[in-house]
């Protein structure tokens, strides 16, 4: 454990098993531990006091505040579990989930995926899957999420047998991940498909916590 600027960082995570059409998947931790309404601002927008997990805070600062120095700490927290879970799975390629916002100065999911590939001594490719829709699934209700269907395309096919790790920074509804896996399943040279996300934004009753403990930051 270490403290920086009054923020306590706990060098542990609590991986959560992700159920889906993939062979196996995990989110490394919850994104938010608690978020409490504290009143409206001058413009009538509700404000919240939010406590994120350690990893959730790092992902938030990295993705939404542009603090690229957070990447090293994200990987430091992720590496022990990634090695324990995946090192013997025979992962040959690491693919990022294609981002919705293509106008960022950098793409967090690309940089995270590339670093995870190095841990696993696997190939990395950011151009296998593309997403045409600019709609973020987290902004849609259940019916509207169907708009994402058929917006994911696989533009490069595997030329020999591959075991794939699909990486995303945040897991919300899982709609985009499911569509990515559906597309990859049509490639006859892809065998196993594993899913790894850094955090999970929504808790579920009875969700499977793998191991570890949580730390958080109050904002």
What class would the helix/strand composition place it in?
alpha/beta
* Biggest pleated sheet: 6 strands, mixed
Proportion of residues in extended strands: 25-35%
Q: How helical, in percent, are the residues? A: 10-25%
Helix-strand string: EEEEEEHHEHEEEEHEE
Q: Using DSSP, what is the number of strands?
A: 13
Give the spatial strand order of the biggest sheet: 3-4-12-11-7-8
C-alpha geometry = globular
- Under CATH, the topology can be stated as Rossmann fold
Mean pLDDT figure: 84
Distance between termini? 19 Å
The unreliable regions are 1-10, 209-219
Please tell me the total number of domains. Answer: 1
Polypeptide structure, described:
- This protein has one domain (2-218): Rossmann fold.
- Helices cover 24% and strands 31% of the residues.
- The chain is built from four helices and 13 strands.
- It has helices spanning 54-64, 70-86, 108-120, 175-185, and strands at residues 2-4, 7-9, 16-17, 24-30, 32-40, 46-53, 93-96, 123-124, 129-131, 152-154, 162-171, 190-200, 216-218.
- The strands form four sheets. A six-stranded mixed beta sheet has the order 3-4-12-11-7-8, sandwiched between helices. A three-stranded antiparallel beta sheet has the order 5-6-13.
- The longest helix has 17 residues, at 70-86.
- The chain is globular and about 60 Å long.
Write the layout of secondary structure elements.
Layout: E1 2-4, E2 7-9, E3 16-17, E4 24-30, E5 32-40, E6 46-53, H1 54-64, H2 70-86, E7 93-96, H3 108-120, E8 123-124, E9 129-131, E10 152-154, E11 162-171, H4 175-185, E12 190-200, E13 216-218
Parallel strand pairs: 4-12, 7-8, 7-11, 11-12
Antiparallel strand pairs: 1-2, 3-4, 5-6, 6-13, 9-10
Helix pairs in contact: 1-2, 2-3
């Amino acid at each position: 454990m270490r403290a920086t600027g009054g923020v306590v960082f706990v060098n542990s995570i609590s991986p959560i098993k992700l159920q889906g059409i993939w062979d196996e998947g995990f989110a490394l931790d919850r994104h938010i531990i608690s978020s409490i309404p504290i009143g409206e601002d001058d413009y009538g927008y509700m404000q919240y006091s939010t406590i994120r997990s350690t990893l959730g805070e790092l992902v938030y600062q990295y993705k939404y505040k542009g603090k690229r120095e957070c990447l090293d700490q994200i990987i430091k927290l992720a590496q022990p579990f990634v090695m324990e879970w995946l090192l013997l799975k025979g992962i040959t390629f690491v693919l990022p989930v294609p981002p919705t916002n293509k106008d960022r100065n950098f793409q967090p999911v690309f940089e995270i995926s590339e670093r995870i590939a190095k841990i696993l001594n696997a190939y990395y490719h950011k151009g296998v899957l593309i997403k045409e829709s600019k709609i973020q699934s987290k902004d849609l209700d259940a019916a509207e999420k169907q708009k994402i269907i058929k917006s994911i395309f696989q533009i490069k096919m595997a030329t020999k047998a591959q075991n794939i790790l699909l990486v995303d920074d945040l897991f919300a509804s899982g709609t985009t991940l499911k569509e990515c896996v559906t597309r990859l399943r049509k490639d006859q040279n892809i065998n196993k498909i594993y899913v790894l996300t850094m955090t999970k934004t929504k808790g579920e009753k009875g969700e499977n916590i793998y191991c570890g403990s949580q730390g958080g930051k109050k904002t």
